[in-house]
Write a structure and sequence with these properties.
InterPro entries: P1/P2_N_sf, Ribosomal_P1/P2, Ribosomal_P1_arc. This protein has about 120 residues and is mostly helical. The chain has a single domain, classed as Arc Repressor Mutant, subunit A. The protein is about 75% helix and about 0% strand. The chain contains 5 helices and no strands. The radius of gyration is 23 Å and the shape is globular. The chain starts with a helix and ends with a helix. About 5% of the residues are buried.
């Protein structure tokens, strides 16, 4: 993530996003710089309008949050009672599936997140 932050810092300072500039920012922050990651970042950002990308990213959580919030507000209290009943049914079914571990879906969720950490450091 530090590499992306370095690029954003350079962009905000109206400095050119080059390998040397990214490396200088990272070294100033005390990051152990990997040259291959710097090259990959500069190449990936070559044709990107960072200002537009930041605006788009800033708008995305607001739109997603409004949709989710609106859906739960429209649902009302009646659906909440139904959710509790569904949870109780799910708890009652836990013993029926002896061949499927309770955490079977957790591995997929963990594996999904591992790749992102490796990508950005």
């Amino acid at each position: 993530m530090e590499y992306v932050y370095a690029a954003l810092t350079l962009n905000e300072a109206d400095a050119e996003i080059t390998e040397d500039n990214i490396t200088a920012v990272l070294e100033a922050a005390g990051v152990d710089v990997e040259e291959s990651r710097v090259k990959a970042l500069v190449a990936a950002l070559e044709d990107v309008d960072i200002e537009e990308a930041v605006e788009t990213a800033a708008a995305a959580p607001t739109a997603g949050g409004a949709s989710a919030g609106g859906a739960s507000a429209d649902a009302g209290g009646a659906d909440d009672a139904g959710d509790d009943a569904d949870d109780e049914e799910a708890d009652a079914d836990d013993g029926d599936d002896a061949d499927v571990p309770d955490d079977a879906g957790d591995e997929d969720e963990e594996a999904d997140g591992e790749g992102l950490g490796n990508l950005f450091g």
